[in-house]
TrEMBL record, chain A:
GO terms for molecular function: ABC-type phosphonate transporter activity. It comes from the Bacteria. Residues 241-425 form the ABC transmembrane type-1 domain. Belongs to the binding-protein-dependent transport system permease family. This is Phosphonate transport system permease protein. It is found in: Cell membrane. InterPro entries: MetI-like, MetI-like_sf, PhnE/PtxC. It holds the Pfam family BPD_transp_1. The lineage of its organism: Bacteria, Pseudomonadati, Pseudomonadota, Alphaproteobacteria, Rhodobacterales.
TrEMBL record, chain B:
Its main location: membrane. PANTHER family: ABC TRANSPORT SYSTEM PERMEASE PROTEIN P69, PHOSPHONATES TRANSPORT SYSTEM PERMEASE PROTEIN. It is found in: Cell membrane. Belongs to the binding-protein-dependent transport system permease family. It is a multi-pass membrane protein. This is Phosphonate transport system permease protein. Residues 92-277 form the ABC transmembrane type-1 domain. The chain crosses the membrane at residues 28-48, 96-116, 137-155, 255-273. GO terms for molecular function: ABC-type phosphonate transporter activity. The keyword Transmembrane applies. It comes from Sulfitobacter mediterraneus.
Length: 438, 290
């Protein structure tokens, strides 16, 4: 009898073990097979060939450094100096960087004994230590040089265009212009552009030194020039971040205000009519299912691009989410408190106010505050689609594909913004509900 | 008896007075808070309305225009709808694939980050703050940021979206996972340690079986979110159904039937996965209660 018992128990245990073993090996195996399928479905081998290493390199170096362009127009011999080669970063008339010298023969010192000399008749001399002196002459649309036939891989030369990349900087020669890029660490002109009198002036001097601009006070002028910095657009960015937070705030709070009364309609306890309840629930499911993306697309058609569209898209989607969770919270209220309030002769509205609301408020607030933080992130993404806030500025900066230092700046700002909102929502939750489930 | 009465009468009065004062103060504070909130909402709405290309009140009655145009055109060409749905189905599969691969990779990353960042379980306790901050940063970066940078380097397609969603998922799940892991019973871990088990073995055999139901539940919830995210990223150029939607929209009238087909597919998918995942999540949490 006992022998048989043990036998069946053993068979049962064996079966259990076999199933567990199958599961333990089966799940990773299925995932592995799935990854193998994805590897080919996403064309990863092709991607490896398509990876743009140059793009990655510009991205990596541009994030922490900037370049100053020295450009000679070979038609009229004029030499221009500009940070990142942009109009906004041009040196004012008559000014030039300290590493450029000479009047008839302009000499650009790239550092490390690498020098470029702009000679008359559109001739250019490039001195590269360890390689020698490269001489080039621009004539019409052609460039003639003294370069040998076999070139190192950092020189790229044809009869139309010569590009030399040295560790100190880059030199590009074409018939129409000769360009020298000198690289420096850091984000240039972050505080003031070159046309501001405060450029290159220390903070101590601005605060306590003599008046720099006769027209205005030092601090006023410095703040105004910083705020209206054309290169970094601090004012626009502050507005954009404000817009993004505004979208999240309006969307989340508006959704909560609309969802709360509707949630009563969806809760079994408060709405005995099945049809009404089911209709409200389907409405919640519908607005949630349509998703913020489609709402954004539809609303952008009616309201045009801007923060309001983004806020409404968040509002509509989150009404569904809040409605669902709020009605679940309402289902779970304790009857005893409502009975207690009823026993004092309270009318229905008073029963809700004093019997139900105090019970659900902590749950609802926690939910709303959590969404406030998460919607700041959504607002960044929706902004990129609908055209508002920091998301739009970021996509624009990325699409121009050259101001990567600005992209890095925006990314840092976005991360700081989201973390601040996270902290704020946590702090508010602690203040309003108490630390118990904070 | 009389002395007691005279003593208790003023004290009741005191209590009532201080109670009324307290209630009054509370009402004042909540009233003020409410006022600030209303002012913020109204002024915020006005600012948003000002900075929007079209105004709220002018746009309100146009809300139905676009959907009804799309619907009308789709209804006219309703015979083509199944064909279009079949045409866009591969793009939908790509969107789902992006979401699921990103969820799996993100869950594995989140698991490792959470175990390394939980007190009592971490392999290197002194590095806990490092791993926590790292997952905070991963969580704070919106997917679109990584996706756009990755598109620049890798070119368009599903991989940039996958990487972006996976990184964000890893950060988000690391936080939720480590909240669960903090409450895990350490006795099995100690038992395993006494047999000379390595850190990996202790985690796999001692911690994971305890937390698995919660972890799977959170991962499923994340999968729902990621399907939406993957559709949105497609819209900015990362492939899948979102990309097709943008193309169909760019064509404007005449191709609204395509937009309608994509709307239907996307809506159906989101609802389907929401239902499936919430059913499984319910089962997982119920199993835990028993």
């Amino acid at each position: 009898m006992t022998a048989v018992d043990i036998q069946t128990a053993k068979i049962h245990a064996d079966g259990l073990f076999r199933r567990k073993r199958l599961f333990a090996f089966g799940v990773p195996a299925v995932i592995l097979v799935y990854f193998a399928y994805i590897f080919f479905a996403f064309d990863v081998p092709g991607l490896v060939q398509r990876v743009n290493v140059d793009n990655a390199r510009t991205l990596a170096s541009d994030i922490w450094s900037h370049k100053v362009h020295v450009t000679r127009d070979n038609r009229n011999g004029e030499i221009a100096y500009a940070v990142e080669g942009e109009r906004k970063g041009e040196y004012p008339e008559g000014a030039r960087p300290a590493w450029v010298s000479g009047t008839d023969v302009v000499k650009v010192d790239l550092g490390g004994d690498t020098t470029v000399r702009f000679l008359s008749d559109n001739r250019t001399q490039v001195n590269i230590p360890g390689f020698g002196l490269v001489e080039a002459q621009a004539e019409g649309r052609k460039v003639t040089t003294n370069l040998p036939a076999d070139l190192p891989d950092w020189i790229n030369a044809s009869d139309r265009r010569v590009a030399i990349t040295t560790p100190e900087g880059r030199i590009t020669l074409t018939g129409s212009k000769t360009e020298v890029f000198n690289y420096f660490a850091g984000w240039e002109l972050f505080w003031f552009t070159l046309d501001s009198p405060y450029h290159g002036v220390g903070i101590g001097q601005i605060l306590f030194g003599a008046q720099i601009d006769p027209g205005r006070g030092n601090i006023n002028g410095a703040v105004a020039d910083f705020w209206h910095n054309k290169m970094w657009r601090h004012k626009d960015i502050a507005w954009a971040i404000g817009e993004t937070i505004l979208m999240a705030f309006l969307g989340t709070m508006g959704a909560a205000i609309i969802a709360l009364p509707l949630a009563f309609l969806a809760a079994k306890r408060f709405t005995p009519v099945l049809l009404l309840r089911a209709a409200t629930r389907r409405l919640f499911d519908f607005v949630r299912g349509v998703d913020a993306l489609i709402w954004t697309v539809i609303l952008a058609r009616a309201f045009g691009p801007g923060p309001l569209t983004g806020a409404l898209a968040i509002l509509i989607t989150d009404t569904g989410t809040f409605g669902k969770t709020f009605s679940e919270a309402l289902e779970n209220v304790d009857d005893k408190q409502i009975e207690g309030v009823t026993s004092t002769g309270a009318k229905p509205l008073q029963r809700y106010r004093f019997g139900v609301i105090p019970q659900v408020v902590p749950v609802l607030l926690a939910q709303v505050l959590y969404f406030l933080e998460s919607n700041t992130r959504s607002a960044t993404i929706i902004g990129a689609i609908t055209g508002g806030g920091i998301g739009l500025m970021l996509t624009q900066a990325i699409q121009t594909q050259k101001d990567w230092e600005e992209v890095a700046y925006y990314i840092i700002l976005i991360i700081v913004m989201v973390m601040l909102m996270d902290w704020l929502s946590g702090w508010l939750r602690g203040k309003l509900i108490g630390g118990k489930d904070g | 008896m009389t002395t007691q009465d005279t003593a208790s009468v003023p004290s009741i009065g005191n209590i009532r007075e201080s109670y009324i004062a307290q209630v009054g103060r509370r009402r004042l504070y909540s009233g003020l808070a409410l006022l600030i909130f209303v002012v913020l909402m109204v002024s915020g709405f006005n600012v948003a309305d000002d900075r929007n290309a079209g105004g709220f009140w002018e746009g309100l009655h146009q809300i139905g225009d676009y959907p009804s145009e799309v619907f009308a055109e789709a209804w006219e060409k309703r015979a083509d709808l199944p064909v279009l749905i079949a045409k866009f189905f591969p793009a939908l599969v790509e969107t789902i694939n992006i979401a699921s691969v990103a969820t799996i990779i993100g869950a594995i990353g989140g698991l490792i980050l959470s175990l390394l960042g939980t007190r009592g379980l971490a392999k290197w306790p002194s590095l806990i703050p490092l791993f926590r901050r790292f997952s905070d940063i991963l969580r704070a970066i919106p997917e679109i940021v990584i996706a756009l940078v990755m598109i620049f380097v890798l070119g368009g397609g599903p991989v940039p979206a996958m990487i972006a969603i996976a990184l964000h998922t890893a950060g988000a799940l690391a936080k939720m996972f480590s909240e669960v892991a903090e409450n895990a019973d350490l006795k099995p871990v100690e038992g395993l340690a006494s047999t000379g088990a390595t850190w990996t073995q202790r985690m796999l055999l001692g911690v994971l079986p305890q937390v698995a139901p919660n972890y799977v539940s959170y991962t499923l919830l994340r999968f729902e979110i990621n399907i939406r995210a993957s559709a949105i990223l497609g819209f900015v150029g990362a492939g899948g159904i979102g990309y097709e939607l943008r193309n169909a929209m760019a064509w404007g009238p005449g191709r609204f039937d395509e937009a309608a087909a994509i709307f239907v597919l996307l809506f159906g998918t989101i609802v389907f996965f929401d239902q499936v995942s919430s059913r499984y999540r319910n089962r997982l949490t119920e199993g835990q209660a028993q």
